[in-house]
C-alpha cells in the first residue's frame, strides 16, 4: 500500500563532484529512482540521511517496509508490505514500476528459527527479484552478510570467490540470497551486486568489530557504488566469469563484494567493491580506545553468530 509522499517528476542535478560523493545517481546527471526495501531499518535510515545519503547523490527514494518510517522527506514515497507474504505483490510492483534500481535490505538481520528466516530472507528476496524482473528494474543490490562465510577462519583474508560456509540459518539465508541473485543475473540478465556487509552501526563495540565495521557514511558510498559501478569489471576483479548467456549478453551478471570501512585491522578482500568504485574513507581504529575486549568464539569470521541459539526468540524446540 502506498503511504505517503510525492513523485512529481524528475529534476536535474549537477554532476561535477568527486566520484564517490558527487550529486548524480547516473553518468548523465539525471535523478534516478531507487526502491529501498527495509527502508525503515538501521541501514535504510543511514541511506536516507539528509546530510549525505543517497538523495544527496542524486537518487529519489521509494521505501518499502513492513513498518512505516517515522518521518518522510518531501521527495520520498513509502510503501508498506510484508515480503514474507505472497499478498505483497501489488505493493511491491507498485514501488518497483518505473524505478531504475532496487536496494534490498528488508529481512531478519540475525539468527532466528528456520521458518522465520526462510520466509523473510529467502522467500522475500525471491519476491523482490521476481518483481524487479516483471517491472524491468535491471539493477539490484542485495544485502548479503559476512555470515554467508562465517565459518571461514580469521587468520587469512576472507575470500570473495570461495564456496560459502554459513554459520547459522541466517547465514544460509544469505547464501540463498546470493544464489538467487546469481540466477536472476544469468537467466534474466539483471545486474546484481550482493554485499557481504560487516557490522554497520554508528560505531564498533568490541575489538573484533574494529576489523569488520562499516561506517554509516561508507555504507552510503558502498551502496552508491553498487548502484552505479561496472558489474562486469567487478566480476572480473573477483576472479569470476560475467553472467551466463542471458546475463552476459544483456550487460548483467552478479558480483559479490565485501562491505567494510578502510579499517586498519581489516582482513577482508575489498577488490570487487573497489572495482565498483567504492572508496571507503573511515577507519574503525579511531574507536580503538573506546571498545571492549572481544570475548566471543575465537578464530571464525562469524564471531558470536556461530553459537547463537536459533530458537531463543521462541523458547520452543523444533
Ligand atoms: N547492520 C548490519 O550490521 C548488517 C550486517 C550484515 C548484513 N546486514 C543485512 O542488511 C540488511 C539491513 O540490516 P539492518 O541492520 O538495517 O536491519 P534492520 O532490522 O534495522 O532493518 C531491516 C528492516 O527490514 C524490515 N523487514 C523485516 N522483515 C520484513 C518483511 N518480511 N517485509 C518487509 N520488511 C521487512 C524491518 O521492518 C526493518 O525495518 C538486512 O538484510 C541484514 O541482514 C546488516
UniProtKB/TrEMBL annotation:
Domain NAD-dependent epimerase/dehydratase stretches: 34-197
Domain of life: Bacteria
Region Disordered, annotated ranges: 1-27
A Pfam family the protein falls into: Epimerase
Stretches with biased composition (Basic and acidic residues): 7-27
Coiled coil: none
Protein name: Uronate dehydrogenase
Amino acid at each position: 500500500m502506498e503511504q505517503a509522499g510525492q513523485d512529481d517528476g524528475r529534476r536535474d542535478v549537477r554532476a561535477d563532484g568527486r566520484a564517490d560523493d558527487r550529486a548524480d545517481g547516473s553518468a548523465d546527471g539525471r535523478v534516478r529512482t531507487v526502491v529501498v526495501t527495509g527502508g525503515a531499518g538501521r541501514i535504510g535510515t543511514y541511506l536516507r540521511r539528509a546530510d549525505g545519503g543517497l538523495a544527496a547523490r542524486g537518487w529519489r527514494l521509494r521505501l518499502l517496509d513492513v513498518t512505516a518510517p517515522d518521518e518522510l522527506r518531501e521527495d520520498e514515497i513509502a510503501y508498506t508490505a510484508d515480503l514474507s507474504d505472497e499478498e505483497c505483490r501489488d505493493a511491491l510492483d507498485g514501488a518497483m514500476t518505473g524505478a531504475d534500481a532496487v536496494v534490498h535490505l528488508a529481512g531478519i538481520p540475525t539468527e532466528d528459527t528456520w521458518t522465520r528466516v526462510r520466509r523473510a530472507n529467502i522467500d522475500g528476496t525471491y519476491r523482490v527479484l521476481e518483481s524487479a524482473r516483471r517491472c524491468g528494474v535491471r539493477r539490484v543490490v542485495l544485502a548479503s552478510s559476512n555470515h554467508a562465510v562465517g565459518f571461514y577462519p580469521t587468520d587469512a583474508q576472507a575470500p570473495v570467490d570461495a564456496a560459502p560456509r554459513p554459520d547459522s540459518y541466517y547465514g544460509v539465508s544469505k547464501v540463498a540470497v546470493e544464489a538467487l541473485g546469481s540466477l536472476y543475473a544469468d537467466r534474466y540478465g539483471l545486474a546484481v551486486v550482493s554485499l557481504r556487509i560487516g557490522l554497520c552501526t554508528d560505531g564498533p563495540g568490541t575489538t573484533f568489530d574494529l576489523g569488520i565495521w562499516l561506517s554509516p557514511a561508507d555504507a552510503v558510498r558502498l551502496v552508491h557504488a553498487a548502484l552505479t559501478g561496472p558489474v562486469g569489471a567487478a566480476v572480473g576483479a573477483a576472479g569470476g566469469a560475467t553472467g551466463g548467456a542471458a546475463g552476459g549478453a544483456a550487460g548483467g551478471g552478479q558480483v559479490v563484494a565485501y562491505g567494510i570501512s578502510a579499517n586498519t585491522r581489516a582482513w577482508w578482500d575489498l577488490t570487487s567493491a573497489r572495482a565498483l568504485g567504492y572508496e571507503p574513507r573511515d577507519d574503525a581504529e579511531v574507536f580503538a580506545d573506546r571498545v571492549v575486549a572481544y570475548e566471543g568464539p575465537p578464530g571464525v569470521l562469524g564471531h558470536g553468530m556461530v553459537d547463537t541459539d536459533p530458537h531463543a526468540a521462541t523458547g520452543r524446540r523444533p
